[in-house]
Structure formats: C-alpha cells, structure tokens
Amino acid sequence: MMKHLFDQSIDRANTHSVRWDKYGPGVIPLWVADMDFRSPECVMKALHSRVDHGIYGYTYASEELKENIAQYVQRTYHWTIQPDWISFLPSLVTGLHLSVRMLTHAGDHVLIPGPAYHHFKDAVVGAGRDYSTYEVQARGDGLCISLEELESLVKPNTRLLMVCNPHNPGGTVFTRTELELLAQFAKQHQLIICSDEIHADLILDEGVQHHPIGSISQAIQEYSFSLMSLNKTFNFPGLGLAWIICPNPKIRAGLLKDMHTLIPNPNLLAYEVTQAAIQEGGSWHQALIKYLRSNRDYVSQRINAMPGLSMAHLQATYLAWIDASQCHWENPFNTILDAGVAVSPGSQFGNQQFFRLNFGTQRQLLKTALDRIEIACLK
Predict the structure, then answer these.
(1) Domain that holds residue 224
(2) What secondary structure letter does DSSP report for 142?
(3) In which residue ranges of the chain is pLDDT below 70?
(4) Shared-domain flag, residues 194 and 296
(5) pLDDT value at position 1?
(6) Is residue 148 within a helix (H) or strand (E), and if so which, with residue range?
(7) What CA–CA distances, in Å, run from 338 to 300, 319, 332, 372?
C-alpha cells in the first residue's frame, strides 16, 4: 500500500515549485532537495486542523514539542538531552549562517568541508571570514575526513569547525570512531564544532547508525552543537523548521543573539507538522526509507553501467553524487540539461566534473531521466 503511495505521480507544475517550475515542460527536474511524495497523512491532518481554527497569530514552540524532540532524539540516536538545550530556527541554513556570524569575529578563521552543500561556503564568505576547505576524501566505498589535512589547515585564529554528517552530497555517515577523532582534534585546537545533521533520518543502509556530535561524549557537548530538522525526511521544507541542540548555555546564547530581530521565529504551521511527524509519522518514514533504498540501488546500477559515469555507494540521503570526469564533457550540467534532465551542478559543491541527482521521486520518472542521461553518454 505504501509503495503504491510513493509510486503515485503528482503534478507539481505551476505550483511555484522552485524545482519544477524553473526549467519548464520537457525537462525532468532532479535537482533541488525536496521529494515528489506527499507528506504523511498525519502531517496533512495536522495542517488542516490548525488552518481550520482560523486565527493565525504569533505562536511559540510548546514545551511539549521540546519534550517530544528530546524523546525522539533518545529513541532514534540514543542520546539523552535536556529540552532546554533545544532552540528553534526557521531553517537549517539559518543555523549555518548564524554559526559563523555569531560565534566568530572579523579576523577569525573557519574550517569548512568540501565538496559540500554550498551554504557552508556562503556562510563564511557572507560573513567576511577567512576560511579553508578540507576535502572529504574517498575511503573505500565512501568518504572520510583526513585529520592530517585538518592539521595542515588549522591556524592559531581558527575558531569554528563545520561538519556535514550525513554528508551532502556524498551520502556517507561518519562512524563513531571518526567523530571521536574529529572531536579530539577540535578540543586540542579549542574549536567549536557546528554539525549539520539535516539528513540524519535518511539512513538507507541497514545497520548504520547516525551519531549526533554531542552524543559521542559528555565532554564534547561543551564545545559542539547539532543542527537538525525533519523538513527533508517528511518532505515539508517549504514550511520550514529546524532546531539547534546545544548543551553549552554560553554557545547557545551566542547563537541566538539575533533571534526576534534579523531572524524570525518559525511559522506556526511548522510547529504543528513537526509535532505530528514525531508522534505519528513512524510507519510512513519506514516505508519511505525502503522506497528510497530501492531507488538508490536502481540509480547506482544504472549509472555505474553507463560509459564514463560512476557513483560511489551512498549510505544516506536521496542525493546521488555522480562522477562524470571520464565523459570529458566540458560542462556535465549543461550536457545533461540538453538531454532533458536538470541536476545540481557539481560546481555548486566545489567540483564541476560531478553532478548531484535527486532520486526522491517516482521510479518511472527516475527511469525516464536515467534513459535520457544514458543516451547523452552514448553520443
């Protein structure tokens, strides 16, 4: 029944969709990271109930929501947190930019990952901070962070280490041991760790566990925080809600200095859908993971059979990071767009010879898109 639900084609054209309306008819858009699946029934029911109330005044996050998130974090990641460690933001991107602007000063230096989601770089450039990019490197069938490279890049004025886990666009989930070593490095150099964990609930490999940075040890909680959200998992990014889990009250206060001024509270509907997803979205989430896992395996099989293209195994997300360097295309994004498929250009993440493909869509549409990419490879 659930698979039938995810296979249902839903027309998103002319809905002011960032993803679907940019390129128009004739192009299959597999770029921006939202999915083509309706959110679970519990989310839609919660929206209808709140909308039907008819009054949409200023609204705050309830203590019940904070307690539910704390219980969710304990249940899902085996991390015991206090509800007052949680602070709400209108988006996770807001958290990335706040981290740089509020926790560093002019003249400070920041370490950011690469290739990675472009808002890491945007955050440091926008704040006018000096930064270095550490390369998330190939490791067997995944990616890893090189401590040797981090040691070569850290400076006396480095204040912040930014991490993306699970990694976007690589899809790797860093192990507990890797995070322990990363935390030791940060402690040695007196760095604060900002960990983007928005894809924590999109683990596709069975037996793989996401570890929030603060869950590694109580000591690490003093100099780290996690940015989390259910926006991607339950497919309501347009409503917008993220949260910071920050045990250290001094860091937490620093992050929130611009709340209610430059940074608004999330909208009231975002609180409702997050609460509903936590309380009632479990079975839908499990079915989604199975569907995405099947799509991932299909994309991997197809891409790795195409001349010139390759795709390493991804453990998490619905975003495939595809190497087109052996195709010798001047611009892989343009070549694929000419074939009728819009992907995210690798240049957005720091490597033009790659592209990122969103497989959070119906299998039939995915097949058509991959058929078009294969034709481009055979020309």
Answers:
(1) 55-280
(2) E
(3) 1-4
(4) no
(5) 43
(6) helix 147-153
(7) 22, 21, 10, 10
CA 62, CA 58: separation in Å to the nearest integer? 13
For helices 119-127 and 92-103, angle between their N-to-C axes, nearest 10 degrees: 30
Closest by alpha carbon to 192, among 105, 88, 94? 105
Separation between Cα atoms, residue 272 and residue 61, nearest integer Å = 9
Query: Do the strands 319-323 and 354-358 form a parallel or antiparallel pair, or are they unpaired?
Result: antiparallel
* Torsion angles phi and psi, residue 263, rounded to 5: -110, 120
Q: Strand 319-323 vs strand 310-311: parallel, antiparallel, or unpaired?
A: antiparallel
Output the furthest CA–CA distance in the chain (Å, rounded): 59
Measured distance CA(247)–CA(241) in Å, rounded: 20
Per the CB < 8 A criterion, the answer to whether 43 and 50 are in contact is no
Distances (CA, A) of 227 to 54, 88, 199, 212, 362: 32, 10, 10, 9, 29
On whether residue 176 sits in a domain, the answer given is yes
The answer to whether 293 and 151 have CB atoms below 8 angstroms apart is no
Count of structural domains, the chain: 2
